[in-house]
Amino acid sequence: MAIQWKGVMPAVTTKFTPQDTLDLKMFEVNIKAQLEAGVHGIILGGTLGEASTLSDPEKRTLVQTTVEIVNGQVPVIINIAEQTTQGGIQAVKNAKEDGASGLMMLPPMRYKASDKETIAYFKEIAKNTDLPIMIYNNPVDYAIEVTLDMFEDLLTLDNIQAVKESTRDISNVTRIKNRFGDRLKILSGVDTLALESLIMGADGWVAGLVDAFPKETVAIYELQKAGRIEEAIAIYRWFLPLLELDINPKLVQNIKLAEVATGIGTENVRPPRLPLSGEERKQVLEIIETGLKNRPKLPNIAALQNA
Predict the structure, then answer these.
(1) b or e along 243-271 (b: 16 or more beta carbons within 10 Å of the residue's beta carbon)?
(2) Is the entire prediction scored with pTM above 0.90?
(3) pLDDT tens digits, residue range 112-161?
(4) Per UniProt, where does pyruvate bind (predicted)?
(5) What is the pLDDT of residues 84-112, one digit of tens each?
(6) Residue 267's Cα: distance from chain center in Å?
(7) Residues with catalytic roles
(8) Which helix (H) or strand (E) holds 289?
(9) Which fold has domain 7-305?
């Protein structure tokens, strides 16, 4: 399925049973809630998906299951986060076999590669697949920045098409637009900068709190796209305390707790992660409960999408 690299793409959480196996039943509940809200793609195996704790067979199961659930409604994208180039090549081959529509790709894991090594890693893996690729640029969490000069080199490959922009520098959206125009699609990867990024020209939003609040997230995107900025800002202001749960070391636990509150997830995480407890849990629950209490009335988003 072709990817246009725009709109809201949830970085979905991986659902686990109390026995620490994949909870595909609750996973399907959440995916269907995302589809009902009108998201534009599904991203698997990212940070929120607890990718580092998943086995290769589990990743493949998630891709195959999601492809079956979405049934061609939206693209299914799998994150590639590997320690070796050969591992990345095998992962993209698996993704193709399992029916993925595209790839999100991080720089090499664990080893802090140089610019030259990072470019070589991305290009070698990209040459081994025809799937379209979005580079995940998150130097804050992963210590390697993909600079504009590096993108100039990477864009010589046709299937490198987009960036998940997570540098936390809002002006980077303008720098990318000034340098590359529409050659490099931009999806904001930071929930608390998403609307600002969209207004400045980003094409989409790889979202986190969408996992618990899909309709509100899609509403913000569709309203700003339609030029109804004040309405988008009003929802965004309500959403911000919840969105801040995403820029936190416990983002997985935070968002899973929010999913429980909205009825489309469980709190189960995979060790070494543990569910929130004590004062930390109390504070997060207060934020979620306040958000639910003041949840805004949304406009007819389907009408906007069909306009």
Answers:
(1) bebbbeebbbbbbbbbbbbbebbbbbbbe
(2) yes
(3) 989 999 999 999 999 999 999 999 999 998 889 999 999 999 999 999 99
(4) 206
(5) 999 999 999 999 999 999 999 999 988 89
(6) 19
(7) 136, 164
(8) helix 278-293
(9) TIM Barrel (3.20.20)
